[in-house]
């Protein structure tokens, strides 16, 4: 019975093929071979999702499709916490981060973070920390709800009291919706897309797929190889 190729064997093959890709960047045959090796490598390595420790009801391993573990503190990692979920590939040379980082939001959270001015300013500072973090090159906000849910959402309480005027003021609601759309567009231009998923289960599945595709498409970052010309 033939021995199964170990993860390090796949990594070596990927590295060798990547050198060919650097020399022949337009070769579809080489890129296809690399993808085959990357898929095999992903089946052999351990992939873990680090979860922010302030997540009250975190996505589970079953929901995401990868094992989960607590996100390390700044003291142990050397980095301030950014995002709620981060992927890690455990290679023979040490842990390597998947370059996509995730912020998870409920509809209520999204409103509070993106529309309330003080909170939005705080979130934009977090985006600045993300851009300064060499481990990642993509931040995505995943909202557990639809775009319609987000646009229709209005907080019932202002200052702890039910706000009848705000709840039923059509012109003001239209203005807030314009603000919501503008903020979503602004985040997109900052390379921070907002993905709306119907519920927590779909949101977690989408995040798991983002991790998978980030490893496939940006394997060279995970393995710390020279970026290809097409990157």
List keywords for this structure.
about 230 residues; elongated; alpha/beta; 6-stranded mixed sheet
Tell me about this structure:
There is one protein chain. The relative contact order is 0.16. It contains eleven helices and eight strands. The model is unreliable at 167-171 (pLDDT under 50). It has 231 residues and is an alpha/beta fold. It has two domains: 1-44; 45-222, Rossmann fold, CATH 3.40.50. It has a six-stranded mixed sheet with strand order 2-1-3-4-5-8. Helix 1 runs antiparallel to helix 2 (28-44) and helix 2 packs across helix 10 (200-217). Helix 3 links the parallel strand 1 (46-51) and strand 2. 52% of the residues lie in helices and 19% in strands.
| Biggest beta sheet summary | 6 strands, mixed
**Spatial separation of the terminal alpha carbons:** 40 Å
Order of neighbouring strands in the sheet with most strands: 2-1-3-4-5-8
Could you say which overall geometry the principal axes of the C-alpha atoms support?
Answer: elongated
Share of helical residues: 40-55%
- Order of SSEs, N→C? HHEHEHEEHHEHEEHHEHH
> For the CA atoms, what is the radius of gyration?
21 Å
- The pLDDT mean sits at 90
CATH architecture of the largest domain: 3-Layer(aba) Sandwich
